[in-house]
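S.,

Sequence below, as promised.
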Amino acid sequence: MMSVGGLESTYSGNFAEFLLAASKADAHWYSVKCLSEGIPSLPDLFGISEKKLNKFLVLSGFVKLVNGGCFRFWPDKFNNFLVMSGIGDCCEHTHFRVTGFSRSQHFIRVGSAKLTTMSKPGDIGPGPRIRNLREVLRNFNKSNQSKTMPFSGGGAAQDRSHSSASTTTAESVPDPTVTELSLLRMKSLLLPLLLKPELLESDSFWQPLGDSNAIVSVILDIAKDLQAQKEDKLSEILGTTRAPLSPQSKQNPSKYPTMKQYGISLEDRRVHQSLLSELYHVNKKHDNTTTLYCNVGNNKLSSFVFIPSSSDFGRLRVNENSSKWFGHVLTALGGLGNENATLVDLLTHIGRKEDYSDAWKEAVQLNGHSLVPRLDATA
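The prediction came back faster than expected:
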């Protein structure tokens, strides 16, 4: 396995070969990321998704992974690459403000013919035809695949630039190896917090990889220890202890996958209560309702209605007037617009339920209704 520096030089070298091969084409600006339909972009040129292009640019050293998994283009590194590769005549970088976007966008010029008549960055319209683009991309793909870099292309973009078709006819290639991308993430996000920048820029700092499984194991062990410390601290803050969970549930990937993915404690009940409280407030803010809806595993939509605790009738009436929880219960039971019919069904069910018979009679009398059937006076 190559060092990170070696990976960057390998993939940037392949990119330089592509730009040289396409240099005889008419010059045209391509946006680094997809902006809007009709604006030529590098993903369209290569006939691949923006996500795959970003992975390649990361491996080339032109794009940096930042917090949140987003990609940030490094123009200084790209311009330095052009100078060091001696291909400044074939390609260049610029910023340009495009209508509909608040910030200037990155554009790359491909081709060096007819520079004086080329369109502005961001102009709508297909890019010029690049001669033998399929062969150029095929050679580019072979070079990258030999280094385990997954790329797909093969000329679909050339077809797209002269038609409205959006399908890609290129061969599929596997995604980049997890180990290589993990190394680059460590270099971009973790190691700058621990080491001096000049060390990270030196190829001699990086050693060839050994057992990638051993690296993964160490990283996971560190993460587990940190997660355990985090949960202990959170339990201390909340004043609770964690309820035990079986090892089978912890290891079963189908059990609580979302909580595991986001590092939420499976054992601390106070954490669960706090999470429900926050979900309630988020739902109320964004959806303007206090009812939560979800599928609990039976392929049916279930409703969780917020009902304040009430110690007596007076408090129950105050709470219902302020939160309208009973109306939300009716909507949850029968659906929006069916509240009246749902209320009749609910009251009928309560009146016929033997367990509630005495309470039902008392409630009827308290509301001034008689339990004795009334006779029609005209009968």
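Residues 53 and 157 are 13 Å apart (CA to CA).

Coffee later?
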